[in-house]
Specification:
Distance between the termini of chain B: 36 Å
Largest sheet of chain B: 7 strands, mixed
Order of helices and strands of chain B: EEEEEEEEEHEE
Structural class of chain A: mainly beta
Helix content of chain A: under 10%
Strand content of chain B: over 45%
Radius of gyration of chain B: 13 Å
Number of strands of chain A: 12
Shape of chain B: globular
Distance between the termini of chain A: 41 Å
Strand content of chain A: over 45%
Largest sheet of chain A: 6 strands, mixed
Number of helices of chain B: 1
Shape of chain A: globular
Number of strands of chain B: 11
Oligomer: heterodimer
Structural class of chain B: mainly beta
Chain lengths: 112, 116
């Protein structure tokens, strides 16, 4: 069965510092990967996705994720975080046309 | 489009009372999902509908929980009787069948349920 593992439940980082949120997946078929973001008191929003092609995908607010097939990883990075990036981030994989499996989430705490 | 609409946003009820959560999916979406989110258990899929038919309800915790989708634009999640351990944020999400790998799901803003 396909699954997603987010290695850190919480990540504290100082404002303007770089951050990496780690995600590993298991899949035996074509891989479609996502990162969702949940801001406080809101629902989940799609941040970025990997379908095929370039292994590096970017979001509009400066996050990027790299698909690494050999390491079965899809880590999320940002070179300089802002206080507004405080949120919970979910890695997810879609193993079929209607199913998405979510990881347990990583809470990003931005320290002033 | 107004997105996935959930009501109410907040619900406080006493133990033993019936609670009904409501969801309106995005127009044209024919897959609908109910999730529960708690600090301890994270995001849990409760039930999944396709074309108004329940496909997978293996995540429904017990018989106190029931979900219906009488038409393509409305779904309810009912808890009867409610218990304090049901306190959580309940999310509804929708998608167009077959497009999850390309577009993901669209989530509502959630209903925060507190059972006292």
């Amino acid at each position: 069965a396909q699954s997603v593992t987010q290695l850190d439940s919480q990540v504290p980082v100082f404002e303007e510092a770089p951050v990496e949120l780690r995600c590993n997946y298991s899949s035996s078929v074509s891989v479609y990967l996502f990162w969702y973001v949940q801001y406080p008191n809101q629902g989940l929003q799609l941040l970025l996705k990997y379908l095929s092609g370039s292994t590096l995908v970017e979001s509009i607010n400066g996050f990027e994720a790299e698909f690494n097939k050999s390491q079965t990883s899809f880590h999320l990075r940002k070179p300089s975080v802002h206080i507004s990036d405080t949120a919970e981030y979910f890695c997810a994989v879609s193993p079929s046309a209607d199913k998405i499996i979510f990881g347990k989430g990583t809470r990003l705490h931005i320290l002033p | 489009d107004a997105g996935v609409i959930q009501s109410p946003r907040h619900e406080v009820t006493e133990m033993g009372q019936e609670v009904t959560l409501r969801c309106k999916p995005i127009s044209g979406h024919n897959s609908l999902f109910w999730y529960r989110q708690t600090m301890m258990r994270g995001l849990e899929l409760l039930i999944y509908f396709n074309n108004n038919v329940p496909i997978d309800d293996s995540g429904m915790p017990e018989d106190r929980f029931s979900a219906k989708m009488p038409n393509a634009s409305f779904s309810t999640l009912k808890i009867q009787p409610s218990e304090p351990r049901d306190s959580a944020v309940y999310f509804c999400a929708s998608s167009l069948t077959g497009t999850a790998p390309y577009y993901g799901y669209t989530f509502g803003s959630g209903t925060r349920l507190t059972v006292v």
